[in-house]
Amino acid sequence: MHPEARRAAILDAAVAEISERGFARTTSRHVAARAGVTHGLLHHYFPDHDSLLAAAFEKVALEEIDEVNEALAADLDPLTQLREVTQPYGPGGGQEAYRFWLEAFAEAYHSAQLRETSQRLSRAWHELVVGIIQRGVAAGVFRCEHPHETAWMVVALSDAFALQCQIGSALAPHEMNEVLSRLTERELGLPAGSLSDEPA
Question: 52, 68, 69, 185: which sits with the fewest CB atoms below 10 Å from its CB?
């Protein structure tokens, strides 16, 4: 197998193992067995376990970000784009995708490589939201003096609500989304209900 194809196969196996076992319970030997390679060959591509986990997380997160960017490039107006990214488990998301991010965040506390990767990917997601807000301000749809701060608010609340959904909070996902929508509308000077109303 070509080296790039072999590396991709190992990463696919790592993603599958993490999806089933979680970051903390996945070992390099699990991944090697699933990929059909020796433990030594796996470490030829990924020198240690942390680099393998970080690469698997980056693969999933970048695929999600690419999917979101593709959805946002479909000639949508800024309000529709914002509505897309503030919906629970929006484009590129889903409960499994959010779980992957949340587990990576938790494991990053113990891994410098995973922490660096998480920070870089979080900034990429933040910049995506910043871009939507800035386009909305330029179009006269939003009013926002601090797009970067507001984008972090949106990202942080989305992550917090996703965590609550994962652990079975008494607050339903649609109730959490109503709070996120309401606060985002206030931050951007939008009429109440702008993010919950479907476009005409």
Answer: 69
Please choose, from the candidates 99, 10, 95, the residue with its C-alpha nearest in 3D space to the C-alpha of residue 46. 10
Separation in Å, CA 22 to CA 19, 106, 110, 148, 178? 6, 11, 15, 32, 30
With cut-offs at 50, 70 and 90, classify the pLDDT of residue 94: low
Q: Which of 22-26, 71-75, 131-135 has the lowest mean pLDDT?
A: 71-75
Question: Model pTM greater than 0.85?
Answer: no
Structure tokens at 135: 């386009």
Any long-range contacts for 163-170 (C-beta under 8 Å, 24+ apart)? 163/102, 165/88, 165/95, 165/98, 166/95, 166/98, 166/99, 166/102
Share of the chain above pLDDT 70, in %: 91
The whole-number pLDDT of residue 91 equals 47
Here the contacts of 179-188 (C-beta below 8 Å, separation 24 or greater) are 180/86, 180/154, 181/86, 183/153, 183/157, 184/82, 184/86, 184/150, 184/153, 184/154, 187/144, 187/150, 187/153, 188/82, 188/133, 188/136, 188/142, 188/143, 188/144, 188/150
3-state secondary structure of 196: coil
24/49 Cα distance (integer angstroms): 11
Closest CA to 87 of 199, 178, 192: 178
Query: Crossing angle, helix 49-72 and helix 3-21, to 10 degrees?
Result: 90
